[in-house]
# Entry
Amino acid sequence: MKTRFFQILVLGLAAATAGLISLPAVAAPAAMTSCTMTYKLSGWSFVYKQYDGVGHISCSNGQRAQVGLSSKSIGFTIGKSEIEGTGVFSEVRNLNEIYGHYAALTGHAGVTKSVDAQVLTSGEISLALTGKGRGIDIGVTLGALTVSPR
# Structure
């Protein structure tokens, strides 16, 4: 009887050890990176605001990308301007997470010298844009900014 007990115990331990060895390794969470963007946008507004442009994204992990920007919104707005500025993204795991549509609440004003500020969000990712430029414009709008690879 003792022999049978030890056989079962040894077989059980062997099976448990084999099960532990064959368990898949748990992947470590991907390191987060911070990304910034320089951009140029130009466009017009009269109740509807449409601005298009380009940007260059640089991340702390060395990733870089040229992007196309398209902003469409609606609100109390009128004018035409060109804006150059910078944007700061919340931390991401990979540059590819940045592409997509961002909901935007914007405020802009200027006579010959324009100022633009936007707070945007796309799921868990946030983007804050600030810029200066030239033109004549004033307004507050609600809309979207699309960031796409070029």
About this structure: The chain has a mean pLDDT of 83. The radius of gyration is 26 Å. Strands lie at 35-59, 64-89, 100-122, 125-149.
